[in-house]
Amino acid sequence: MTIDRRRFQLLSLTALAGASTAAAATSTASTTAPPQAGVDGSEPGFRTLGESDFVNVNCKDDTWQWKKDMVHCTGDPVGVIRSVKPYTNLEMVCEWRHLRDAGNSGIFIWSPIESLDRLEGPGLPEGIEVQVLDLGYKTAYEKGGRKANWFTCHGDVFPVGGSTMKPFPPAAPNGRRSFPTENRSRGVGEWNHYYIRAINGEVRLWVNGKEVSGGAKCNPRTGYLCLESEGSPVEFRNLRLRELP
């Protein structure tokens, strides 16, 4: 079968246009929908966390603003909201994105009520923190001539205050932080997916679909879940949690 030259050119242009459109759609999807771990929160036993699941600890009334499955944090002041109830063994999934370059935030696991009750002004509780840090934070930190060799921007896990943890390797120079095995976080304005598993004093973190960091022998190993406000606007969405025996 033969196709005249003009018709062939039209068909070729149409195919190229379709390929370009598909590529653009894939690019957009990769920006808005980060890769997810094998557990995405749709499994039996998971439930959505919303405004009624948290109480303010030491933030302003308007620091955290909820809208359906998403919460916006202004970053002012430094502080947290905590879960209504304490948890011991759990799985949690969420997505987060920073809205300003060099943004800082975090998710606390197993924060003791005693440290939360002491927070009358700006500050953060004890517990195990899963870092939520924008990629620009390292650049901003090093502008003053300091070396950013004690943290990363890709999902550090570490104990805060008097809390303790044996970090999974690679560890920070001071031996307290678990550094990620891969750099998988996305930059400012892009959504990132976290899957956190905290069982029997052990915490593991998956960043955008792959396990990267964590630690064992955590103390405490029961307490409250907290979302952190730390000086910069950040958003969380699709917060889902499953309690385990």
Please give a structural write-up:
Helices cover 16% and strands 37% of the residues. With 245 residues, the protein is of the alpha+beta class. The protein has two domains: 32 residues; 206 residues, Sandwich (Jelly Rolls). Strands 1, 3, 4, 6, 10, 11, 12, 13 and 15 form a nine-stranded antiparallel β-sheet that branches. Strands 2-5-14-7-8-9 form a six-stranded antiparallel β-sheet. The N terminus is likely disordered.
CATH architecture of the largest domain: Sandwich
Which fold does the CATH topology of the largest domain refer to? Jelly Rolls
Low-confidence stretches: 1-30
The helix/strand order is HEEEEEEEHEHEEEEEEE
By helix and strand content, what is the structural category?
alpha+beta
Number of strands: 15
Beta-strand content bin: 35-45%
The oligomeric state is single chain
Fraction of residues in helix? 10-25%
Q: Please compute the radius of gyration using only Cα atoms.
A: 21 Å
CATH superfamily (homologous) name of the largest domain: Exo-inulinase, domain 1
Kindly give the count of domains: 2
**What's the story with the biggest beta sheet?**
9 strands, antiparallel
User: With helices defined by DSSP (H or I, 4 residues minimum), what is the helix count?
Assistant: 3
What is the typical, i.e. mean, pLDDT? 90
How far the N terminus sits from the C terminus, by CA atoms, comes to 68 Å
Highest CATH level, the class of the largest domain:
Mainly Beta
